[in-house]
Amino acid sequence: MDGSPSPTLAAGASAPEIQTHKEALLFIEHLGRALKIIKIYEPNNLIAERQINALYDLTRGVLLRQKEASLLLRQSSLFFNGTRIRFTINSYEIFKFLTQLLKKRGIGLLTFLPGLSREALQLFLLLLGRRASEDASFEVVASELKRLRLDNHIAVEPVSSFDIGGAREADTIRLFFMGISHLKEMFTKFLGGGLPPLTLTRRLMQSIFDHISENEAFLLGLTTVKNFDEYTLNHSMNVCILTIALGRRLGLDKNELAELGISAFFHDYGKMELPKEILDKPGALEADERKIIESHVYRGAEKLFLLKESGMIPVPVGAINVAMEHHVNIDLTGYPTYQKKNTISFFSKIVKVCDVFDALTTPRPYRPHAFRRDQALSIMAADTGVGFDPVILKVFINMMGLFPVGSLVLLDTGEIGIVVENHMDSRLFFRPKVRLVTDRAGAKIMGPVADLTETNPETKRFERSIVKSLDPEEYRINVSDYFLTQGA
Amino acid sequence: METTDSRRNESPAPSREGGRVAEKVHEILSLLARSVSSIKIFSLNHATTRRLVDALWDQLSRFLERHNKLEIGIREYSFFHEDRLVYREEKALKSLPFLLYKDGTKKILFDKGLRREELLDFLLLLKEAFEARQDDLDLVHMLWERDYPHIRCFAPDSFLEAKISLNLETQTPDVDISNLSSGSVELTSEDRSSLMHSLDDGSAFSAEADPALDLESSMAAGDGGARLSHEEDVILKQMLQLNRKTCSEMEMVFLISEILYLETRPQQFSEALGVMDRIHQELIEKGRFDCAAQLLKNSYAAVARLSLEHPSPGSLISQFLDRARSSESFSLVKASVLQNRPRDFQDFFDYIRLLGPEAMLILGEIYDQLKTPSYTAALTEYLQSRVREDPASLLRLAVPSRPALTRTIINILGIQAGEKAAQMLGSFREGWHKAIRLEAVRTLGGAAGEARSRVLADYLDDEDEEVRIAAAKNIRAFQDAILLNKVRDFILEKRFFKKSEQEKRALIDLLGRSRTTESLMLLEDLLKMKSGFRHRAKKTATRLAAAAVLGQVGTPEARNILERGSRRGNRKVRRACKEALRSQYRR
Ligand SMILES: [Fe+2]
Ligand SMILES: [Fe+2]
Fold first, then answer.
1. Residues A303, A301: Cα–Cα separation, whole Å
2. CATH class for the domain made up of B478-587
3. In angstroms, what separates the C-alpha of A79 from chain B's closest C-alpha?
4. Chain B: residue whose CA lies nearest to A445
5. Confidence class for position B62, pLDDT limits 50, 70, 90
6. Which domains does chain A have, with CATH numbers?
7. Are A482 and B180 in contact (CB under 8 A)?
8. Distance from CA of B302 to the nearest CA of A (A)
9. pLDDT at B207
10. What is the pTM of this model?
11. Does the structure show a pLDDT above 70 at B223?
12. Which ligand minimizes its atom distance to the CA of A239?
């Protein structure tokens, strides 16, 4: 590990750091692919052989220079020879696959040592990646390594108790409502004093991030909670979650994500002082009422400025930007109309996507019928390049899938389900994991989670497929309840 | 806060091995605490610190080598290792356990594989946390951001729960679980028919099962359609990079300017203006003159626009600009430059220019205190760039106490063509040291021009002879009637003869150089002058000089005058005229 750079790869990384990091990404990509392929093909299959060779060559190269090639799992992070791997959007899938596989096997540290032969590597891949050994615990893997006499060149260490997440849905739910409470306090106290420090808000963002790393799908599911307490509070929390999840996939650093989260959290800060009659007015708005609604952007920015300049809360400038311009389109239409400024910040573009998604999927007095989650995505997709940054929107849509978590779906079995998780591969977006909430006859049940990629071994047909997505309001099914009960 | 520390200490009867380990851990933690103190007092590179850190590193890495990890439990003022008290410090201000405890850390873990740089960074972080004010820095959050591979802390969400004051019980919705598994759902006819339809043709998204293997193999091939294209990936990376490079001060400048455009409520407007004042001040203090200049630019634009639309906001922003031009603000600017010593003064000069001519004074005052070659060079360059647009502003910097800068300014003005610059050079006649006056005169003589000659003529009155002579010698254009009259007056005045020979000669030479009919006539007048009784010798000398000069002029007109002169008057003069004529024939 000598010669390795500092533990974190800072924004201004040096050339050798970047080199190490490139190698790290390449390594997990090769390892991940080899493990996936070995699951399906025999090792002597041409594709498999090629993949294993590629991994072997790469590893041998690393071993020549660095004495070892180690992959360290730490909560939500992977380290390659001590350097944290900052995944890029295109390596995210493999990153998640490897993390999950290591966790499942209870492996916290995997080390290849000099002298590793290609044969040994292949045996190891079979041991780790094969379906038959899917339930193999750490002990099984470790003893197999010993039995196969691979342990001279391949070492594994168990995941530390620090990194075992455990069932945390209840904690996540508490965190969600803590967030709303915290925001309420920030909204109601303002300059009157007694405001909680920003370090606390940052800690909240940290926890949200940690929970997302642990179980992104569940957090996405919680954003089906709407209009709890006050619309703006619940909405801001939802936008905050969606934004951190999206920012994480876009490849932002932790400190950037904390700031991004804060920006999303306070994006509608200017609404706190607007009259409820106008905010919640059922009918169309008069011109002067519209003007008042639109004023929330600069009122919010102004308030955040006052907090910052009074020295009370060191609000990041990014948050002021977002408060000001989360209704500005990327072609600078929308509101407010800028006089001098001619750019929209990266954070604003990210938050805007999540803001619109949550707004569209929330029933409001002026639009009692919210859009379905999949509908909201199509509406947004139609506005790409004008309202939204196309790349950011694409990543968001890929994060949400075709049937975003929280969608109510009708299955070809006649059952109704709620999407609880999407697969990483976009070709499986038609086949998410679904919690069954009615049986075939329509009786309500707290059913199991069904993975729609499951096939019937005899007919080789899928057990269940989605017919269409349903409108939860029409069926008076409160989707969020199914997520909230997970904590019970 | 819990105070169970001491009780825990009493508990299990220590085994001998356990006792030895606890001792070792105690030693490590003491070294850790002492290292941090030493960094605080001295620095990381101080010899004392180094010794301590080396010892810490030595002990800790050996411990990790042997035990694979070191997990420390944290209570208010104490560290625990496997339920044994291993370290205690009750003075909150210097207590390492308390530092970690107050931000909600329950455990801290060092893993085998720890690297020295990691440990050093961690020590510096602890030092920073000690020095920060309570609410400014959250150690747990900092550790989270750093993401050390081998140092981790465990801080559960319960910390947040305790800090967020609202009652969570009333802040969580009730879900009636029984409701989720009772009753039934009737499909609408539309949805029912979709279902039937899908069963008939095996359609929608559905049942025509791709063979599972194909699906998986395509999955194994890796590239989900969700990937970004190469171009998209590049665009995303650029956005990330750009965001990291964005200057937050500049963002603030633009944001506050936009807010002032939008805000129409008087109270809020003046609050926002107050924010702008503070931002402006902070920018100056930080030496961020690029941003401060942009703030002024935006404000000028706002005044120009708003004064028509809403009279009041426009005038308020004008007042902001007035404040920026106040002497208080000027001293702030001066102090900032002297303190920050910018490497590049371009932004600073830009800012000064936007403040208007009064602000030039700041440049001079800084010049007096910051006599670095880099500032002088930058200032010279700036003045050169300003002279065409506003030559008068340069004069504000020229004062007798700054001879070198004044010389520089004179030279800059001298290169500049036109009447204005010439007039500026005339302003060094009174109250200035002779050397400066001479510099101005020589500079004026550096190029021809009526205006310059007129200004030089003013220097013919100078109290110092050397300056007067230089002025006479440097006049290069003579068409001007005023100039000629002035010279005539000089010559015809009685005190002309009291002037030294050199000065007289310089003035006569001047007439000769001009070659106009008028000046030749004047020379003839001198030639014909009666020597009289008083100043006889001096007058004769003047006449002889006139003859010599006429000889140098050499025009037919001048020759005619000499011809006439050679036939009349004083013998010396006649001879001189003949001599002058001869010198021409010889050519
Ligand atoms: Fe908004
Ligand atoms: Fe919003």
1. 6
2. mainly alpha
3. 7
4. B181
5. very high
6. 15-163 (no CATH), 169-400 (1.10.3210.10), 408-487 (no CATH)
7. yes
8. 9
9. 44
10. 0.85
11. no
12. 2
